[in-house]
Amino acid sequence: MVLHSSLSLSLSLSSPFLNPNNNNLILNNLNQHKHKHFSCSAFKPTSQNAIFRRDFVLFGLTSLSLTTPLSVTLAEEEEEPKMASFEDELNAYSYLYPVELPSKKFVFKWVESRKPERYSSAAPLSPDARLRIVSERVDIIDNLIISVTIGPPNSSIIKTTDKSKWTAKEVADSVLSDKSALRVTSSQRLAESSVLDTHSGEIDGEPYWYYEYLVRKSPIKVTPDSSVYRHYIASTAERDGYFYSISASTLSPQWEKMGAILEKTVSSFRLLMPTENYVPPYKDPWRFW
């Protein structure tokens, strides 16, 4: 895993989420900087209880944020955040994430809740363990979550192996159909989410699918206000028969303030050329140690 020092980046005035190719400039800038390497150990859940523990934590954050406002109020004119680069050599992907809003003297309070780990030992997001979290970071104070998941396409939705024919809506539905801690069918899991927008783009000759959605159901009831949802923005790419997806989210009342910043993270997501440290998800996919 590689962590770059914080960088102040000049991003395109147009939303990079709407034009993913703009981020090639960001990655070129990052390549000019030295890397700092360090190793880390990973959580290794041993039962389905890990799924529910995660949901209690995340929805506990929801309760906190309903009573605690964002620790910064963004100006109407969007400020370019200072970004850092995260690279996971184990699963061969990278993305940028915000670390500071200089003019507001605001620092994001990220905690790496799940360090990178191989697909076979990663925490499942549903009882069938198809979709798994390979890394995650959270900002507890401001209720921000960035997760990366890996899982195979849902064959009931993705019916061809020719990915040039896949639509962004099909990819979104495939990923979301496996994203639930509840022991329900894929169609019921899919009904927990409302997809607001989808589109696709091409980066280095490979398709990336982008989608925005709300999650309106949860295993526990944390608020009587049914209009408060988690608002997600996500990107998915395919490699070796598996979907690699990044999602960034916050509560719906905070989306107006934080949505544009989370879009920059999602649009920066890239699959990297595998190194000797890469472990493909099809290698011992059911080994939990």
From TrEMBL:
Domain PsbP C-terminal positions: 83-270
Protein name in UniProt: PsbP domain-containing protein 5, chloroplastic
Regions crossing the membrane: none
InterPro entries reported for this sequence: Mog1/PsbP_a/b/a-sand, PsbP_C
Organism of this sequence: Stylosanthes scabra
